[in-house]
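## retry 2 of 3
previous attempt timed out at serialization; input unchanged, resubmitting
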Amino acid sequence: MPITLESNYRLLVQSIVDYAIYMLDAKGYVVSWNLGAERFKGYKAEEVIGTHFSRFYTDEDRAADVPSLALERAVQDGRFESEGWRVRKDGSRFWAHVLIDPIRNDAGELIGFAKVTRDLTERRAAQEVLRDNQAQFKILVQGVTDYAIYMLDATGHISSWNPGAQRIKGYTLDEIVGEHFSCFYTQEDRKNGEPQKNLRLASTIGRVESEGWRVRKDGTRFWAHVFIDRILDDHGKLVGFAKITRDVTEQRKATQELDRAREALFQSQKLESIGQLTGGVAHDFNNLLMTIIASLELISRRVPDDPKLHILIENAKAGAFRGAALTERMLSICQKTGASTRTIGLGRTRSRDVGSAAELSGLSYHHHHDFSHDPGASLRGPQSAGARADELAGQRARRHAGGRTGNDFGAKGNGRSGPLHETAGGQLRQTGRRR
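## retry succeeded, writing output
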């Protein structure tokens, strides 16, 4: 049997399995059937040839006379194309893409139709999933109010807008779509080309993240945390940018306040450490001053009655008392108490220092502390350092005018000496007899 063009065409049609290709007569009855049609619809050729093609339609479509309308449109328009549900032999449905072309003879008379059907069920399912995802994503984006999420085209003009963007920036959808996103930047940033720089970086490296001042519709500023991501199509061509902006003004203020609090705490701790160090030095210096004062008192008992020498001793004692008063102030500040206390610290004076000075002068010394009211017992004195110095100067004058005052350790030449005690005037007095 010779191979003709018609036989080749028939072989070609019969071998196609991805498309259902078959013929209908002028009334819509099936007159041919290929392997693709058998695979899609489930019918063998002997089962379907001679039956009307409306059997492949759903009951709803048949009730609406969709098969007849399809043939009429094919005759009128020269082709009919549509997508819709079709029914297999087992009753299951598939989504079909259908082409119906009229076939005419050489005289132009309609003799039938060529029908090509393709099963697009999987593609439609994928498209539905994509549409569902897009719809869900749109709902998600539109539901976000804490973030401004919107799209830019490749040149930086706004193409979408969500409620978060409207809340943060103040523009409505109709006001802002089509505008360039540089309107959100400060005048200084626009002059420096920051918007264009960010788009160039995003298009080059894929993403830009930054923080900075942005401007609302009313002109107020807010501190923004910004992401710009490039968007590429299936061929890798840049089609736009996704931009996410968050107002972090309050977080920035809170961070700054926390930093200031930490700095204040650090300074406080540093001052506290300095105060503790100063307090320790002041206590030690106070002990030394008390030893000096006690020694000067004992020296004044042992030296000859030389006015010039006594002036020097009194000057030394006045300086020691002034130093003790200053030490008292330092201790008061370190202890966060007022400096008006009427004491000069003696609480930690080492008894061996004062006692040694007493032994050198041949006096008997008893060291006495009174901790009943203050753990840092002190040498009591009713006046400040300056007043104490004035008192000592007056004592010197009285000495040169007529002898010792009642505030000395004891009367010179009385042949008696005894323990050292603090007087109401803040001086040390000798009482009792030498043993």
